[in-house]
Amino acid sequence: MPRVAALYRHPIKGFTPERLDELAVQSDGRIAGDRVLAFRFADAAQPEQRDGLDYWPKSKGLALEAFPTLAALQVSYDHVARRVRVAYDDTLLVDVVLDADGREELTEIMTAFVLDSPEWKLLQREGRLPLVLVGDGERARFQDRSKGFVTLHSTASVDAVSVVLGQELDHRRFRSNVVIEGADAWDELAWTGEVRIGDVRFTAEGPIVRCLAPHANPDTGIRDARILTALTRDIGLPEPTLGRLLLLQGVTGAVGDEGGMGGVIRVGDEVTVG
After folding, report:
1. What does the angle CA 241 – CA 67 – CA 5 come to, to the nearest 5 degrees?
2. Which of 1, 32, 230, 239 could form a disulfide with 24 if both were Cys (CB 3.0 to 4.6 A apart)?
3. Whole-angstrom Cα distance, residue 53 to residue 146?
C-alpha cells in the first residue's frame, strides 16, 4: 500500500519548498500556506484571467525556471503569525512579519539577492523592476495553473531518473506537495478516478509536464541535472512528465464554486487509488 513519505509547501511561488509533517487541504482544494506570496515583475503585478479565474504566469515573476539561484534559498513560513524567514547558506537574510514595513524589507532583500546572482541581467530587462510582492499571506493564489491543484509524485519515479543520471536527486527539485513511497515507478501517471490520502478524497487529473525548474539543485542553486532529457530521450516518455495533479473532490475551479471537503494529510497516511 502506498504511503505518504514527505510533504512540502511553497510559501513563496517559485522558491524552494519547506518540508512539514502535515498539510491542511482547504475547501478550495489548495494547501494552506502554499504559494500565498509571489514576487512579480513591475509590468505584471495584476493577474491575468483564465477560465474566469486569476492566473499568474510564472514567466512574469521570480521563479526557478529562469532564476535557478533562488533554489538555494531556504524559506519557512508561519501562516498564523504571517511571518516569513529566508536564509541562504544557513545565513539568515530576512525575518519579517507581513506588515507594510516587513513586505518592503522582504522585497528589498530579495531584489538585492537576485541582482547579486548570476541571473542579475534578467532582472534588469525593461518592465521588471521594481519587483512587487503580491499576496496577502493567507490565500493560496499563485499555483502554476488557474484552478490550483495538489501535486504528487512517487519516490520510485525520482529514483528511476536518478539511476539514469547517475546522481541522487532531491525530491524538492520536483516541487510536489506530496511524495509517496510504496508505488512502482511511473504508477502515478496511470491513475484515474478517486485518490484518497488519509481521509481526504481527490480526483486524479493530468500528469505534470516539467519545465527547467527541476534542473536547479536546491542546495546550490546551480543547474546540474539534465532531467528533461532524461525523461524523454533516456526513459522514453513522450513528454518530460513526472508526477500527478490532484483536484479535491467537490471542487470544479469554477467561479462561485462552494468547494469540497478538505482536511489534513500527514506523513504516513495511506494512499488509495480507485
Report:
1. 45
2. 32
3. 6
Whole-number Å distance between alpha carbons of 232 and 238: 6
- Each domain of the chain, given as residue ranges in start order, spans 36-134, 150-273
pLDDT (tens digit, 9 = 90+) per residue, 171-182?
Answer: 999 999 999 999
Report the sign of the C-alpha dihedral through residues 28, 30, 32, 36, in that order.
negative
Give the global pTM: 0.93
pLDDT band with cut points at 50, 70 and 90 for residue 255: very low
Cell digits of residue 12: 513563496
HEC assignment per residue over 137-200: CCCCCCCCCCCCCEEEEEHHHHHHHHHHHCCCCCHHHHCCCEEEECCCCCHHHHCCCEEEECCE
Q: How far apart are CA 24 and CA 29, in angstroms?
A: 10
